[in-house]
Design brief:
The N and C termini lie far apart (63 Å). The chain has 482 residues and is an alpha/beta fold. The relative contact order is 0.11. A five-stranded parallel beta sheet has the order 3-2-1-4-5, sandwiched between helices. It binds flavin-adenine dinucleotide (FAD). Its EC number is 4.1.99.3.
């Protein structure tokens, strides 16, 4: 009897425990289903582009080892039992997912298949710890990161990752099923007209090899000084592994052990402090999954329900300017344009742009979360809502409401020469360092020399900083006193 491996958010061959287990249970059927059922949040445009490329890489890697990736589209709740029956599979394996709809689907499928005598096993491939394993002394979920991470670290080092199998077996598929199989192109995941993905193609190499390359480059160079450098959007100072992690092209266990190994053998310029900081960022991802597991509505419901009473402004024009990177605040605009062009944004700038939308434009964090979901290649069911709620102040362990980022001082501190702004906001490229983060303060002669006419080829600020700040403080304070 064949063994069926159902790929989901684990598009890799190495350190893939479900794959390892399935290989021991008979000739292999590798399956991917593009889920078009409505239970789960539909992937955004940038994530669909990534998925398409990642499936391409996976399918080639499987074929190179003698296997085959079967691709279908539809409702997994119906398709999977159907495939199991038609192929006579007696064993099904998958790696776990953690959003509420996926958990419900997987649970129902496991029950249904088990009832028909099929053995079903699920595994942890994408987290250092299962979200339910890490508990407070009172046996509950953590609400604060520091004690959460301390508890994880006290548990010791993660287990060693599994190597990729040398060869894959291939089960013979019934002819009717072979006919039903789709190509990746059939899934129509790539944009056609307009083709907005050229910036994404230039920036990324989706797939397991791309993920390993990225990690290697980061350990060879980028990690030196990460502890402070990670806040600098003008430098290549972070790993950019987030979309690879999102699609499970690399596991946190692999990242952990490769990094630890490079430190021990002296093969990386990163210091022990840099590496501990890097691990703790991986820890924030784990913490987000911990929050999502215990709060399945994280993307739609305020974690702190007091925020349900928040008097958000409805500023459609402001939201539109924000999405397009036309707010008149250079660091905010640079971030949103980086996002649009490359599908990614530096973490510091994610915080600045999110704070600007929520605080200065007093816009509900869910509007920003939705935009990021559609445009990020790393759009993540846990990290995205957890981070947005964190900035809003409605989240777990969130920033206090009176901490409102000033986009000018943030820009001057973290992009001191304005290199980042000039890269993504070409209209301002000729403006000198002094006024690059506040062009409205520049003398008329300097603007003229730089070819800038505010309100014409670069916007005037959509909102005055002191007005926005005061309005936000009042709105948030009203909430706190309720
Ligand atoms: P590195 O600094 O190299 O960190 C390594 C890995 O650790 C990352 O790949 C990521 O998986 C994890 N990580 C790093 N910082 C964080 C963090 N603050 N929170 C959680 N995990 C982190 N991250 C996503 O993966 N998907 C999202 O949809 C997402 N949305 C965000 C929205 C907002 C408003 C904010 C403020 C942050 C968001 N983040 C999100 C977190 C963070 O910005 C990105 O993970 C990070 O910028 C990815 O770049 P990197 O891989 O170079 O990070």
């Amino acid at each position: 009897h064949p063994a069926l491996l159902w790929f989901r958010d684990d598009l890799r061959l190495s350190d893939n425990p479900a794959l390892r287990a399935a290989l021991d249970h008979g000739p292999l059927i590798c399956l991917y289903i593009l889920d078009t059922a409505t239970q789960r949040r539909e992937l955004g445009g940038a994530a669909r582009w990534w998925l398409s490329r990642s499936l391409q890489a996976l399918s080639q890697a499987i074929a190179a080892k003698g296997g085959e990736l079967l691709i279908l589209r539809g409702d997994p709740a119906e398709l999977l039992p159907d495939i199991v029956e038609r192929t006579g599979s007696s064993y099904v394996a998958w790696n776990r997912r953690y959003d509420g709809a996926a958990i419900a689907l997987d649970r129902a499928l496991k029950a249904k298949l088990t009832e028909t005598g099929v053995e079903v096993e699920s595994f942890n491939a994408n987290l250092l710890n299962e979200p339910w394993q890490v508990k407070t002394k009172a046996d509950g979920p953590f609400k604060v990161f520091t004690p959460y991470w301390r508890a994880v670290r006290e548990g010791g080092e993660p287990s060693a990752p599994l190597p990729a199998p040398a060869r894959l077996s291939k089960a013979t598929l019934p002819a009717a099923l072979r006919k039903q199989a789709l190509t990746i192109a059939d899934l129509a995941l790539q944009p056609t007209a307009p083709d907005w993905a050229s910036g994404l193609r230039d920036a990324w190499m989706p797939g397991e090899d791309g993920a390993q390359d990225r990690l290697g480059t980061f350990l060879d160079e980028g990690i030196a000084g990460y502890r402070e450098g990670r806040d600098r959007p003008d430098k290549l100072s972070t790993s950019r592994l987030s979309p690879h992690l999102r699609f499970g092209e690399i596991s946190p266990r692999q990242i952990w052990h490769a990094t630890r190994g490079a430190l021990e053998t002296g093969e990386t310029p990163g210091s022990a402090a840099d590496i501990e900081k890097f691990f703790s960022e991986i820890g924030w991802r784990e913490f987000s999954y911990h929050l999502l597991f215990h709060n399945p509505d994280l993307a739609s419901v305020n974690y702190d329900r007091r925020f349900d009473a928040m008097a958000w402004a409805t500023d459609e024009a402001g939201l539109k300017a924000w999405r397009k990177g036309l707010t008149g605040y250079p660091i905010v605009d640079a971030g949103l344009r980086e996002l649009w062009q490359t599908g990614w944004m530096h973490n510091r700038v994610r915080m600045i742009t999110a704070s600007f939308l929520i605080k200065h434009l007093l816009t509900d964090w869910r509007a920003g979360e939705t935009w990021f979901w559609d445009t990020l290649v790393d759009a993540d069911p846990a990290n995205n809502p957890a981070s947005w709620q964190w900035v809003a102040g409605s989240g777990a362990d969130a920033a206090p409401y009176f901490r409102i980022f000033n986009p000018v001082t943030q820009g001057e501190k973290f992009d001191p020469k304005g290199d980042y702004v000039r890269r993504f906001v070409p209209e301002l490229a000729k403006l000198g360092d002094r006024f690059i983060h506040r062009p409205w303060d520049a003398p008329a002669s300097e603007l003229k020399q730089a070819g800038i006419v505010l309100g014409q080829n670069y916007p005037k600020p959509v909102v005055a900083l002191d007005f926005g700040r005061r309005r936000a403080l009042d709105a948030f304070a009203a909430l706190r006193s309720e």
